[in-house]
Specification:
This protein has about 475 residues and is an alpha+beta fold. Helix content is about 50%, strand content about 20%. It has helices at about 1-70, 115-125, 140-155, 160-170, 220-225, 230-290, 300-325, 340-355, 375-395, 425-430, 450-460; strands at about 75-80, 90-95, 100-105, 130, 135, 180-185, 200, 205, 210-220, 335-340, 360-365, 370-375, 400-410, 410-420, 465-475, 475-485. It starts with a helix and ends with a strand. About 20% of the residues are buried.
Length: about 475
């Protein structure tokens, strides 16, 4: 299974890289498509307003021509209202009194609203005629004709209007960019100085009697093009984040599976060792009774039988712990709560290890008044044994010191202090986790199943108390057992 997992991670990384490459390819293709669309929209925005700007120039030219017709140095204008019935307007040359033009309106107007301005605009508002669907100027006099031609040569394009209409079209095409209008001669060409800028197509426009080309320069088109890909970019980022999260989640699952597999192997090995130890002790005790005539010494025989009973109880407790852990449900632990003498438990624990252990152990008890607590006697004994076992396992000093002290208040707190190697900072938060074992430089030098402290804390919580790591340093650790007083 671990081999399969080791193959899965590289395959997942490769798949992720392939997906990122595909995303990058499609984003690039979408960017260039939007770049083409942006260019087409800018060109269309400019092309649509060229005709409007040209018409505006023609209108201004004819407005100036109308002003010339009102110049009394050249003309007199004669109005005949006829009480609104078929009125007439005549254009008379001032110098000769010759009637140049006469407009007859074959219609009837309201005499109360009829004005000279109205008749003038009707007669000379568009001084021209239609030829091939285009308006052609109608000659009046040479002097006025010359002035009309002068307007053609001097009137420029209304650039303000051109820019205003362009901005309006830009909004229609959702273009938000700084821009400038570029005018070049009809036969000229334009060279971009900045490769990042954009120049539109050029269109012919009349300006001061000459044909020119006009285009639009956008210095920074990049973000406008990117904005057109917003939906695609968001979808791509979401897909990438989803895949990366899935990869992260899968990697964590694989790591946990590896750790679980390794923990399972260690657990089986450690359970075997933990069971063999009391069995070996039991075997030695029974062999001593059988071979060395210990039965003749009743006191020693009683000690060996006591050790044998304790080891059998320990084997039973170990098996029960394993069963409880395998059920993954501390709620299934059944308790037999009774009144327990705290002083008796402390002394029984010390007596047990004095008989069992061949090491030099200095047990100390800070004097305290005996107090009754509410607990499951058998399971509370196991908690004490687990804490003392760990204290002895993780101590390199000689003699090994274990001190019991009691604090009595709302809760009865039993502090068990050792002179061991202490617990590293990174292990303290995990010290009560299932299967967690303290290592030395990454190596587990001390045998154990990694369930003692987990099981002890679970039992204490079930009994309405608690088990805490009070403090730890290089000079040892202090664990505190919190119990309910009777």
């Amino acid at each position: 299974m671990i081999k399969k997992q080791s193959v899965t991670i590289p395959l997942t990384i490769f798949s992720l890289m392939c997906m990122l490459a595909i995303q990058a390819y499609f984003l690039r293709a979408d960017f260039f498509n939007n770049k083409t669309g942006f260019a087409n929209d800018v060109n269309a925005s400019l092309e649509l307003i060229i005709g409007d700007v040209q018409e505006d120039r023609e209108e201004r030219k004819h407005q100036l021509h109308k002003i010339d017709l009102l110049d009394t140095n050249y003309f007199k204008i004669e109005y005949v209202f006829n009480n609104g019935v078929n009125p007439t307007v005549s254009l008379i040359e001032a110098a000769t009194n010759n009637r140049l033009m006469k407009y007859n309106f074959i219609t009837t107007y309201d005499p109360d609203t009829l004005t000279k301005e109205f008749l003038f605009n009707k007669a000379f508002g568009n001084n021209g005629r239609l030829k091939n669907s285009q308006r052609v100027y109608m000659s009046i006099t040479e002097a006025v004709d010359n002035r009309f031609n002068l307007y053609e040569d001097t009137l420029s394009v209304n650039k303000k209007m051109l820019d205003s209409l362009l901005v309006k079209n830009f909004k229609t095409y959702q273009i938000q960019a700084n821009h400038e209008l570029v005018f070049i001669p009809k036969e000229g060409s334009y060279t971009l100085e900045d490769s990042q800028a954009f120049i539109s197509d050029f269109f012919i426009i009349n300006d001061k009697g000459a044909e020119k080309q006009v285009g639009v320069l956008i210095p920074e088109p990049f973000w406008n093009i990117v904005q057109r890909s917003t939906a695609v970019i968001i979808a791509s980022v979401f897909a990438v984040v989803l895949v990366v999260f899935s990869f992260w989640f899968l990697t964590n699952v694989i790591k946990k599976q590896r750790l679980l597999a390794q923990t399972k192997d260690d657990f089986i090995d450690n359970v075997t060792h933990e069971l063999l130890t009391p069995i070996s002790t039991l075997h030695v005790s029974l062999e001593s009774l059988d071979r060395y005539h210990v039965l003749d010494n009743k006191e020693k025989a009683r000690d060996y039988l006591k050790i044998s009973k304790m080891e059998l109880n320990r084997i039973s407790g170990l098996l029960q712990n394993v069963l409880q852990v395998s059920l993954h449900s501390p709620g299934l632990i059944s308790l037999s709560m009774t009144e327990v003498s705290l002083k008796e438990i402390v002394h029984d624990t010390i007596d047990y290890y004095k008989v069992k252990s061949k090491e030099d152990i200095d047990f100390k008890i800070v004097p305290f008044k005996d107090v009754k607590v509410k607990a499951d006697l058998y399971r509370l004994n196991n908690v004490f044994y687990n804490l003392v076992d760990n204290a002895l396992k993780y101590c390199r000093r000689s003699p090994k010191e274990i001190q019991f002290s009691v604090e009595i208040g709302d809760k009865v707190v039993v502090n068990i202090q050792d002179n061991g190697i202490g617990i590293q900072q990174e292990d303290r938060k995990k010290i009560f986790d299932k299967f967690h074992r303290v290592s030395q430089n990454g190596v587990h030098n001390v045998k154990g199943m990694g369930i003692g402290l987990y099981q002890s804390k679970t039992i204490m919580n079930k009994m309405g108390g608690d088990l805490r790591l009070k403090s730890s340093s290089e000079s040892g650790s202090i664990f505190s057992i919190h119990l309910k007083p009777c």
